[in-house]
Amino acid sequence: MGDSYQSRRRPMVSLQLPAALRYLALARTATLEICEQIGMHPIKAAQFEMAIDEACANIIEHSYNGPCAPAEETTHPGVGLRFFEEPDGLLVEIHDVGDGFDLEGKDLVTPQEYLANRNERGLGLYIIRTFVDRMEYERSPESGNTMRLTKRR
Amino acid sequence: MRGCTIQREALDHIDILHLEGSLDAYSFPQLETALNELRELEHHKVVLDCARLEYISSAALGALIGFARRARERHGDLRLSGVSPKIQSIVELLGFHKILEILPDVETAAARFER
Question: Which CATH class is domain A13-152?
Answer without folding.
Answer: alpha beta
